[in-house]
Write a structure and sequence with these properties.
This is Quinol monooxygenase YgiN. Keywords: Monooxygenase, Oxidoreductase. InterPro entries: ABM_dom (IPR007138), AI-2_Isomerase_LsrG (IPR050744), Dimeric_a/b-barrel (IPR011008). By secondary structure, this protein is of the alpha+beta class. The chain is built from 5 helices and 4 strands, in the order H-E-H-E-E-H-H-H-E. It has helices spanning about 5, 25-40, 70-75, 80-85, 90, and strands at about 10-20, 45-50, 60-65, 100-105. Strands 2-3-1-4 form a 4-stranded antiparallel beta sheet.
Length: about 110
């Protein structure tokens, strides 16, 4: 199965992960799901795939690919992301510090 970086190794891959506070799993899932459609419409977004842990459904992950760091920065400044970021303390273990974003570059 192909991945976006099979055809374009210059893409910026992002993995974002977070853990829901106990009892907030469904509310967080709904909030995250609401980010997908507007993000997919953003300039530079190749994919924005939301995942939930199978063994521990309190974990959520985004697997994303962007055409450049500038596009990712624009994404992070969009209203829907800023609004969501303002609610991290009510959703995540560790509040805003509980959202871990890792930028990756495919090498092989």
């Amino acid at each position: 199965m192909a991945t976006p970086t099979d055809d374009d190794r210059s893409l910026l891959t992002v993995i974002a992960h977070m853990k829901a506070l106990p009892g907030k799993e469904q509310e967080l899932r709904e909030a995250l799901e609401s980010l997908v459609e507007p993000t997919l419409a953003e300039d530079g977004c190749v994919n924005y795939d939301l995942h939930q842990g199978k063994d521990d459904p309190s974990w959520f992950f985004f697997y994303e690919n962007w055409t450049g760091a500038d596009k990712l920065q624009a994404h992070l400044a969009n209203d829907h992301l800023v609004k969501f970021a303002g609610r991290l303390d009510e959703f995540l273990v560790g509040g805003a510090d509980g959202l871990v974003i890792t930028q990756l570059q495919r090498i092989k």
